[in-house]
Write a structure and sequence with these properties.
It is a single chain. With 331 residues, this protein is α+β, with helices and mostly antiparallel strands. It has a single domain, classed as Alpha-Beta Complex (Creatine Amidinohydrolase). Helix content is 21%, strand content 18%. α1 crosses α2 and α3 runs antiparallel to α4. The longest helix has 22 residues. It is globular, with a radius of gyration of 20 Å. The protein binds 2-amino-4-trifluoromethylsulfanyl-butyric acid and cobalt (II) ion (2 copies). The site of one cobalt (II) ion (CO) has 5 residues, from loops.
């Protein structure tokens, strides 16, 4: 493949076994075809600061997360603060979703999310977390997660995940959803719907005194039933005063050795399955953030922040406005 080629692809593309249009002399199928239809990164705009009156998480200035062994079971007072942060995240995600349309750039969505957070006195948690330079993650088509907003206009037929996390009152709330851009093909629509169902199967497996591995088991069973893949490299996480708790991971697949933690009332964590049309394996772009499916097939995700209660679960980022076709209150 000629990575240096600056020739634009022609209007009519060659057949698989014909010579590639770029003049490399290789077969089209072994040269440029694998890249066509893939997401290409646009320009990334400069860092946008957050005004000084907004409370900042500990990593906001250094980019380095200070990790500590935060209790897994939260006090009622922390839970109330998390409920508020989560409600703010839900509002911002719902409003950001209304912007999704062909021609809109993910950078424009980032600016909107940034301003919506500030209006609510929230710090957009992704900003400078581990050196990430934007206020939301925008993951298009084969991008699994952590896509960086850029100048690429959304195209009719794309699917895009917006992942919003807000920090206020010293705690985080984290939620995401996948949206349709214009007219989306049936296989992608089904992927998005089954992914939402997978998240709800996981949420409905939350109950006290059960191992946390019940969640991944429920998710994986449902994905398998629909012949879809479950991404393993990215997982749900304990959340609270820290964006990602260092010692609590929520796998979205079953692993008898992992996830032996027993769920207890007062625990808070996210459930955020990433489901694929093809392989579950991923690759990273050179930016070291953007994760894509190894085969370039599409992938979708939904996420909620969950509280374990005395008899089940509470969806802290849930409510009427939640973007989720299969939410219990919409069924
Ligand atoms: N919100 C993502 C999650 O669900 C994490 C984004 S980390 C960032 O865990 F640095 F990319 F923002
Ligand atoms: Co998230
Ligand atoms: Co999360």
């Amino acid at each position: 493949m000629d990575g240096m080629s600056t020739v634009a692809p022609p209007q009519t593309l060659p057949q698989a076994n014909d010579a590639c249009w770029c003049g490399s002399g290789r077969k089209y199928k072994r040269c440029h075809r694998p890249l066509e239809g893939r997401v290409v990164q646009g320009e990334i705009s400069p860092y946008r600061p957050v005004p000084a009156h907004i409370e900042r998480p500990p990593y906001a200035d250094t980019g380095k997360a200070v990790r500590w062994n935060e209790p897994l079971v939260k006090s009622p007072e922390i839970i109330e603060r998390m409920r508020h942060a989560s409600t703010m995240a839900l509002e911002v995600l719902t409003l950001a979703g209304t912007m999704v349309a062909p021609g809109v750039t993910t950078d424009e969505i980032d600016v909107y999310v940034h301003d919506l957070c500030i209006e609510r006195n929230c710090y957009p948690s992704p900003l400078n977390y581990g050196g990430y330079r934007k206020s939301v993650c925008t993951s298009v088509n084969e991008v699994i997660c952590h896509g960086i907003p850029d100048s690429r206009p959304l195209q009719d037929g794309d699917i895009v995940n917006l992942d919003v996390t807000t920090y206020i009152g010293g705690v985080h709330g984290d939620t995401n959803a996948t949206f349709f851009v214009g007219d989306v093909d049936p296989a992608s629509r089904r992927l998005v719907e089954v992914t939402d169902e997978c998240m709800w199967k996981g949420i409905e497996a939350v109950r006290p005194d059960r191992p946390i591995s019940d969640i991944g088991k429920a998710i994986e069973d449902h994905a398998k039933k629909h012949h879809l893949g479950v991404v393993k490299a990215f997982v749900g996480h304990g959340i609270g005063e820290q964006f990602h708790h260092p010692n609590l991971q929520i796998l979205h697949y079953y692993d008898s050795r992992g996830n032996t933690v027993i769920m207890r009332p007062g625990m808070t964590f996210t459930i955020e399955p990433m489901i694929t049309l093809g392989t579950w394996q991923h690759k990273m772009w050179d930016d070291d953030w953007t994760a894509v499916t190894a085969d370039g097939k599409r992938t979708a995700q939904f996420e909620h922040t969950i509280l374990v209660t005395d008899d089940g679960y509470d969806v802290l980022t849930g409510g009427e406005g939640a973007v989720s076709p299969f939410a219990p209150w919409k069924r």
